[in-house]
Amino acid sequence: MIPRRNPNPSPNPGLLPRRRRVEMADGTESEQAAVVGDGNPSQLSKSAKKKLLKQERQAARKAERKAGEKERRRADIERRRREWEESLAAAPSQEAREAMLAARRETRLERVGKRVEERGARAERLRRAAEGGQKVVLDLEFADLMRPNEIHSLTQQIMYCYAVNGRSATPAHLWLTGCSGEMGTQVQRIPGFDKWIIEKEAKSYLEAFADCKENLVYLTADAETVLDDLDMSKIYIIGGLVDRNRWKGITQKKAVDQGIQSAKLPIGNYLKMSSSQVLTVNQVFEIMQKFVETKDWKTAFFHVIPPRKRGEAGAANDDDSPEGAANGDLDKCLEEEVDDDDDDGDGDEEADVANKRHCFRSENGKS
């Protein structure tokens, strides 16, 4: 008997369908099954379809949320400006208007003075940390493995790290290593970066800490050693990589190849993650800062890790990037660099911050 042939043979028998990159609504890229063979879409599994639909919903919600927040900020600034102008116009006399303007200037001077005082206290804490704080390194040597939108995301994560560190009562001695090339260009575009009290090294951490290599510990979710406590004699390295899970295991491999220690946070001892235990750079750093403050890993994890990653229902935020995590951190970081010399102006400081935020995002390809 002659065996019957399949009238529609697969163009790639035994092979997985090719993938193609698809730009999502939030500017990120995702991988979907590509068109194969004769131009018909390849068949996705149920789990793949569910994952794709979830990504699309998350991107749509994120875009809608960002647009709403932007509109609310704009409306709030406009409302306050309008109320001020109406109050000024309703003043019974020129003398009353001048008194109102004088009071407004006085209030602004007090606010500026308080900000200067807070900035001075922050600078003093950071200087003390440089003398004896826990050394934490952000490794920025992965720029060649990231797409432009991922480099932009990492740049924002670095901003969050600095903002969190500046507000901490016990800040870390924070280092940026491998701060050259594309990453060096991007961080230089951060408003006020030149004023940051932070160690900035173009060379790698191996060169920067050549005399104490035995104290280097790379923090990676793929490590076998679990970190029970933070050792002040150690230098903890956080990999500056936003890769959407394309480069799994790369930080652990780097540590092994370089002959340095590696460890992972004890997440599994305190909570069950709903998905991967891989966190963003700023989340890892903030967890470390919270642990230094409380000496309690569980408190640190629950303070920083979003409920949806802990498997809890009802989380409002579906974004792993820092943009969806406490927008106030970014606002605070930018506000601290607003020029306070114009003490007699009557303009809104919020507009200054918005302009700086727009400038930073525009330079990084964001609208």
TrEMBL record:
It catalyses: guanosine(9) in tRNA + S-adenosyl-L-methionine = N(1)-methylguanosine(9) in tRNA + S-adenosyl-L-homocysteine + H(+). PROSITE patterns: SAM_MT_TRM10. Residues 53-82 have a biased composition (Basic and acidic residues). One of its GO terms (biological process) is tRNA N1-guanine methylation. One of its GO terms (molecular function) is tRNA (guanosine(9)-N1)-methyltransferase activity. Its EC number is 2.1.1.221. GO terms for cellular component: nucleus. Residues 336-352 have a biased composition (Acidic residues). Gene3D superfamilies: 3.40.1280.30. PANTHER family: TRNA (GUANINE-9-) METHYLTRANSFERASE (PTHR13563), TRNA METHYLTRANSFERASE 10 HOMOLOG A (PTHR13563:SF13). This is tRNA (guanine(9)-N(1))-methyltransferase.
